[in-house]
From TrEMBL:
Gene name for this UniProt entry: mfpsA_2
Protein name, UniProt field: Mannosylfructose-phosphate synthase
EC main group: transferase
EC number: 2.4.1.246
Organism: Aminobacter aminovorans
Keyword Zinc part of the UniProt annotation: no
An MF annotation (GO) of this entry: mannosylfructose-phosphate synthase activity
Keywords, sorted A to Z: Glycosyltransferase, Transferase
Amino acid sequence: MADATLAPSSGGHGIRGHNHNIFVTRLPMILQGRRAFGGPRASPGSQQGNNTANGRFVDSDYLIWYRFTTRDDRADERRHVRILAISTLLPNRTMPNFGVFVLERLKSLAKVATITVVAPVTYFPGAGFLSRYRLRRGIPPADRIDGVEIQYPRFFSIPRYLKPLDPIFLALRLFPHVLSRAKEIDVIECNLAFPDGVAGVILGAAIGKPVSITLRGHEMNVLSEYPGRRRQILWALGRARWVFAVAEALRQKALELGLPPQKIEVIPNGVNRDRFYPIDRDEARLQLARLNGGKRLEGNVLLSVGHLVERKGHHILIDALKVLDERYGIRATLVIVGAASEEGDCSRELQSSLERSGRSVDVVLAGDVPQTALGLYYNAADVTCLASSKEGRPNVLIESLACGTPVVATNVWGNPEIVTDVRVGTLVERSPEAFAKALAEALFHAYDRDFVRRFSETFSWEESVDRILARYSEQGSKAHGGE
């Protein structure tokens, strides 16, 4: 049997953001029958019906809107764009690593704009009893994640066959509240094309506000293969005021589907440099040993970060370890950071790969790791690997480079737009043999960690947000000028 070690979670707490001004308004639901749109109503005093978020009473029959702005000095408060951000891809209490890159963008936007953040959660009767959706039961109606106030309203969804109805149910769920706050919204920002973008366009048309949609990967490399959802996505993209893509590969796919070139521009993700920065490798391994019960990583260490799903390719890296040992005489430890998700669970397949490889591989299954500890793993590794089959613009690669750790990744979708210099990493085909060859060369090569870090400085949230706000501000100025 292969040596598979389960490392305990390091726990830890996120670092709170800057102080925020928070304005709270409680809006009674206009649509009655919350059982249809927001889940079963709990009895008075129960945990579901009577929640407290940050010391505030939260009634789950209300949608509470938080507008937050940083306390940065502003030359002209009235010129700030007021954004309603809708995203079904955001962290929550039970899935803290879900859509962290969207949260980082919203945090950066909040420094220069006023934002209301809504993260709708799908609901259907009995959802909490299915293992795939069980984590949703623990998501509160409102919460504060990494300094950001987020609302989690439930909306009705019928899995699998009637998923194309999700945007309709989402728009219905949010419509009364959007309508009542229309004068406080300049832009509706949707951080996925489906269902967020389709619903956002419906809402924008209803209140006469412009909509932006950001393509992040899943809509183009998965959902576009379904004819019904492809038509919905193209309908929404065609009616949005702005369409952003985080990678040129996603832009090209949208153009192939028929979107006019002038309609879409590439604005990439950035990286949180307060969280991901170089640390001495030995020190990082020592700190991880303290967090994980004293077991220290030694020798050649490879890192793979991502949910335990097939497309992330962890199994390919396990097979690559055996090739690395038998063909190149190099022993290495593979650390896999990630857990099963609603997308799937390939734990059994990983175990099968371990059994096939025998004792020639060493694998550490670290489980889900909080963002505050993830930087230690990047710094402890000699190389970060990404063997995925589909990506948008993976933050894993950017975060690793920010820590000064080189990468080996598949030559797919947005990966080549990040690894553009052989001095920071290598692109390969998706096979154990290709990864083993590239890893053997990477482990032999003496990378300049400072150059790798400096290379990552081309990925900036500040620059991305400046470009986004430049598109929004004209609309915001017009809105305020007419008041």
